[in-house]
Design a protein that fits this description.
The chain is mostly helical. It contains 20 helices and six strands. It folds into three domains: 151 residues, no CATH class; 108 residues, no CATH class; 144 residues, Cytochrome c-like domain (Cytochrome Bc1 Complex, Chain D, domain 2, Orthogonal Bundle). The protein has a two-stranded antiparallel ribbon. A two-stranded antiparallel ribbon has the order 3-4. The chain has a two-stranded antiparallel sheet with strand order 5-6. A hairpin with a 2-residue loop joins β1 and β2.
């Protein structure tokens, strides 16, 4: 009887914890009721939060939702956050919107799936939530019902999320670190809050929560590996604050290459926000990486010399004659590199229009060949109506054996890292996710500078 009583009390307590009241609907506010300056600020904040990317389906209206978000537990579809009164958030008050950001609850009191990263958005201030609300409520209302989530029982029951929150979610706004300066604290607020960098760059546990013991240690995002942004960063040349700020703002940096995959739309959005914001994020992220060791600094100097010296491993090659030094036993990989890659990547033409010298490529020094294979398969897309770097994709040109030979050659010749294990398996997996990657093609840079080599 005592055990049953304890169980009953526990169930009752959990039910009380899991239940939340609805917030009364409101009439959709008129766009002209919002201060234009507040709306402009909200636009900048929405860009930092990358809201348009997750809440816009391919071919759909911006913010109208319906994007399929694959997770290890099933597919979740993003919701409509336009001010449509029936299928969007038009009847949400500012209090309802702020509660969704702060506590992960919709207007009716239902728990939201953490694919909406409220574990980060809870840090956002009331003032910034007010600006975001003003911005969204002045967008075009779009009637669009999101498809039903494809989740197995009991994960399709939202009350289960209360248990997940009990284990992994702590509500509360950002608290600055008094020991740090204003720029670092601003960067921490943006990166940990609206920017939700850890949602991709931190590995997750078996229940889908970010691991608190592996902050920025590298994660997975839609078929891409999000590189570690801590002391374990695999970048061939350690990141510096100015380099990171430039990369975040323009989508490329001469020692680190061009943003691709899930990172491309992030930098595309950051290009529209004040430079001080991207610099603050860079300050915070690079500070967390720590000072590189003397050995790593020496290796970076060697890599930069190799990049200036020409071919694989610093061996000068004649790119215009398509020659490359072969690794014993991998003549095929060397031949493919010489024919398909060297003419751009060894031409000496500067970024963003020239190919990055591959000794500087994090795709080659990274822990898996996943990102390198994605780029080789799909290339870098052109940007309609704007100057942008491009790279052809080789999905229909190279077979699986040729892909494996090429990436193995690149790893052996342009890095000092050990050979990847399971390259053949990684190639098969890259082919398997080919359709998913193609359905959300890599986004080109918003605008590149004028190409000095062209009239």
């Amino acid at each position: 009887m005592a055990g049953l009583a304890v169980l009953a009390v526990g169930i009752g307590g959990f039910a009380a914890y899991a239940w939340h009241p609805a917030i009364d609907p409101v009439q959709p506010p008129r766009p002209e009721s919002f201060d234009p300056a507040l709306v402009r600020r909200g636009a900048e904040l929405a860009a930092i939060g990358n809201c348009n990317v997750c809440h816009t389906a391919p071919g759909g209206k911006v913010f109208a939702g319906g994007l399929a978000i694959p997770t290890p537990f099933g597919t979740i579809y993003s919701t409509n956050i336009t001010p449509d009164p029936d299928t969007g958030i038009g009847r949400w008050s500012e209090a309802a919107f702020t509660r969704s950001m702060r506590a992960g609850l919709d207007r009716e009191g239902h728990h939201l799936y953490p694919a909406f990263p409220y574990n980060h958005f809870t840090l956002v201030s009331d003032e910034d939530n007010r600006a975001l609300y003003a911005y969204l409520m002045t967008r075009e209302p779009v009637r669009a019902e999101a498809p039903a989530n494809e989740l197995p029982f009991p994960l399709n029951q939202r009350w289960v999320l209360a248990g997940w929150k009990l284990l992994f979610f702590r509500e509360g706004t950002f608290q600055p670190d008094a020991a740090r300066d204003a720029e670092w604290n601003r960067g921490a607020y943006l990166a940990e809050g609206l920017g939700h960098c850890g949602a991709c760059h931190t590995p997750r546990n078996a229940l889908g929560a970010e691991r608190s013991d592996a902050h920025y240690a590298g994660g997975e995002a839609e078929g891409w590996h999000a590189y570690a942004l801590n002391a374990d960063s695999p970048a061939a040349v350690p990141w510096e604050r100015d380099a990171m700020a430039t990369y975040l703002r323009q989508g490329w940096q001469e020692r680190h290459g061009v943003a691709r995959g899930s990172m491309a739309p992030v930098v595309g959005n950051l290009a529209s926000v004040p430079e001080a914001e991207t610099r603050a994020i860079a300050t915070y992220v690079v500070a967390g990486m720590g000072e590189p060791s003397p050995a790593r600094q020496a290796r970076a100097r060697t890599v930069l010399e190799q990049a200036r010296g020409g071919g694989p491993g610093g061996r000068a090659t004649a790119a215009d004659s398509q020659t490359a030094t072969a690794v014993p036993g991998n003549d095929r990989g060397a031949a493919i590199y010489a024919a398909a890659c060297a003419t751009c990547h060894e031409a000496g033409r500067p970024l963003p229009f020239g190919g990055l010298h591959l000794s500087l490529s994090t795709g080659i020094t990274g822990p898996t060949p996943e990102n390198l294979l994605n780029v080789v398969l799909h290339g870098l897309p052109a940007s309609a109506g704007e100057r942008a770097p491009i790279m052809p994709g080789f999905s229909g040109t190279l077979n699986d054996e040729q892909l494996a030979a090429l990436v193995s050659f690149l790893r052996a010749n342009f890095s000092d890292r050990p050979a990847w294990d399971g390259v053949d398996k990684a190639v098969r997996e890259a082919r398997d996710r080919d359709r998913a990657v193609s359905s959300r093609p890599m986004v080109a840079l918003r605008a590149a500078p004028a190409d000095p080599s062209r009239p």
